[in-house]
Amino acid sequence: MDSPKLQKLPVINFGQENLQHGTKSWSLARNEVRHALEKCGCFLAVYDAVSFKLRDSVFSALEKLFDLPVETKKKNTSDTLFFGYICDDRDPSIRENMGIENSTDIEEVKKFSKLMWPQGNDDNFSGIIHECANLLSELEQVVIRMVFESYGVEKLKCDSHIDSIVYVLRFNNYKAPGVDERTVIAPPHTDKCLISILAPSQVNGLEVNLKDEQWIPVDFLPSSFVVMAGDALMAWSNDRIRPCLHRVQMNANARRSSVLMSSYHKGVVHIPQELIDDQENPQRYKPFDHLEYHNFLKKELETGQHVQCDAIKRYCGV
Asked: Across residues 156-180, what is the average pLDDT?
């Protein structure tokens, strides 16, 4: 019997012709974005604004960053759950995560760099990371404009939403333990943001769950990033968009790093009236404070609960 054919992620081109608002190319890409997020919760974005040279520079910078002593990396703290340094308690080299809040602000990036390299020998870490953050934030804004527009949400609401976004750039470093079979390094989860944009180093391992409990390995194309919907976008869309359930699985002794840009609303997220009707789509979520969602998750963890994929429904569901 033939094994079931694995589904592929939708691929959407974000070349210059598709980025010109009001054109036929924009409209076609906009429809593809909405369809992909509703059906899969994610898609591959071909986005050559981030050059191969910049990508190489970013991952070289991350290699230097993660080579720092653990005590230095632990200085990357945050009051918000998941925003600062996180590592595997047994062996930090297995899984490490770090982050820069407000990463589109060069001063915040410099502050992080100064924390890691007090002597100033950061090899232009700030410039490289800030350039990457700006380009990824521009891609996120194009995606969110397409989403708002596709649902008929007025432009002023979209502009106000974008003005209220804070971008968190996270760096991930994984090493699979020395076992024979593939190992799940990052267990299945959804992101807590609105939208996340991820690119791995040359070693991949990202898998997404699209349907029927099938785990699909993400085959990255040159100049591509995976764009994933988070919990907050599901709530904003009144359940029209599904968050992307994903995990990381790697071969023995492999090393993998990745960069992840996540968008968060600084205030209260309101479900647009355009997405609510009394018949098929009654309001399923109350207005919610997005960053406070992390404090809700923190309290759940402190009481011994696991962060489940339906946590947003417990937080602000009607």
From this structure: 89
